[in-house]
Specification:
Order of helices and strands: HEEHHHEEEE
Shape: globular
């Protein structure tokens, strides 16, 4: 198996956990994911429902992600809370790719300060598809971590659209 571009320890742990729970199947099931097994990951976890309409809804958002996003969007549709049309299209496209491929997907982005044109936030995210029937993705287990270059941007992710640049993208 080729080396994954995932170097962040929490994301590595999540990917290894998902692969163990998939146990040779194409994807793990939601029932395979037990919060007791992954207590250190819980603050960085999001569980997203894939709806028959093609929309995505946050079922659960861990505390670190709620804090980084500036709100707890549990129960909300992604297309209603993601800021800015370009970033919204980018994130929804990542979910679409994960679901279409039925494979884990890794993405890494830098968010750029519009005033200073330098990075102010760095995020790494892993999308792990879940399926009850082994064919159709009905949820996505997401682990996202944030690194703040400029701490003043904390709690602004869903509040203010920022220019961004994807610096890594890989199907795993």
């Amino acid at each position: 198996m080729p080396t994954a571009p995932v170097t962040e320890p929490r994301l590595q742990e999540a990917l290894e956990y998902w692969r163990r729970k998939a146990a040779g199947k194409a994807m793990a099931r939601r029932a395979d994911i037990d919060p007791v097994d992954i207590p250190k990951l819980l603050p960085d976890v999001m569980l997203v429902d894939v709806l028959p309409s093609g929309r995505y809804r946050y079922r659960l958002i861990g505390t670190e992600n709620a804090d980084a996003h500036g709100m707890n969007a549990t129960g909300r549709y992604l297309d209603e809370v993601l800021p800015g049309p370009e970033y919204k299209a980018h994130v929804l496209g990542l979910y679409d790719e994960c679901i279409r491929s039925r494979r884990p997907l890794y993405s890494e982005c830098l968010f750029i300060s519009p005033q200073h044109r330098v990075p102010e936030r760095h995020t790494k995210v892993l999308f792990l598809p879940l399926s009850e029937d082994g064919e159709t993705v009905n949820q996505v287990f997401v682990v996202q971590v944030f690194f703040y270059i400029d701490h003043a941007t904390r709690r602004q992710h869903f509040i203010e659209a920022r220019p961004y640049k994807e610096i890594a993208h890989a199907l795993l």
